[in-house]
């Protein structure tokens, strides 16, 4: 097991996935940007901002409950630091209007234990941000849905 120690840039709970900020501090990881989705490991301690947190970067973390052995655990899009199942990730993705990055943080060994096996984040295009309509003559792109919820009607748009 490899342990790294960093200063926390925010409150971090034991069991949370963390990343390293550009300032070299530990912060709760989140799947809403490539930087925050680049998981360094799992916090071994609960600390407040400015405290030293030990991060398990490669090994076994025990302290969860209710997990299903064999399942993979992914970084949450909406809850910083949380690890969720693939089905929960898909559900979160359908409920937000941003693109996300899927990061596999590990595999469940027992109902309380995860083997840390971090993969680099992979970009996931949010299907709720793309509208493609099919007509009798093929697929036609009618409009673009922007991140702020507005649309661009392609029939009236000009280059």
Helix-strand blueprint:
Elements: E1 2-7, E2 17-20, E3 26-28, E4 41-43, E5 52-58, E6 60-62, E7 72-75, E8 83-84, H1 86-95, E9 100-102, E10 104-110, E11 113-116, E12 122-124, E13 133-135, E14 138-140, E15 143-145, E16 151-153
Antiparallel strand pairs: 1-5, 2-3, 2-4, 4-5, 6-11, 7-8, 7-10, 9-12, 10-11, 13-14, 15-16
Description:
The chain has one helix and 16 strands. It is mainly beta. The protein has two domains: 124 residues; 33 residues, no CATH class. It has a five-stranded antiparallel β-sheet with strand order 1-5-4-2-3, with no helix packed on it. It has a five-stranded antiparallel β-sheet with strand order 6-11-10-7-8. It has a two-stranded antiparallel ribbon with strand order 9-12. The mean pLDDT is 86.
In short:
By secondary structure, the protein is mainly beta. 6% of the residues lie in helices and 38% in strands.
Essential attributes:
single chain; 159 residues; mainly beta; 2 domains; 5-stranded antiparallel β-sheet; 16 strands; 6% helix; 38% strand; globular
How far from one another are the termini?
Answer: 56 Å
The shape is: globular
Question: What is Rg?
Answer: 19 Å
Write the H/E string, N to C. EEEEEEEEHEEEEEEEE
As a percent range, the share of strand residues is 35-45%
The residue ranges in which pLDDT falls below 50 over 5 or more consecutive positions are none
Mean pLDDT: 86
Strand order of the largest sheet: 1-5-4-2-3
How many helices? The count is 1
Based on DSSP secondary structure assignment, what is the total number of beta strands?
Answer: 16
Helix coverage percent of residues? under 10%
Major sheet attributes: 5 strands, antiparallel
SSE class: mainly beta
Q: Count up the domains.
A: 2
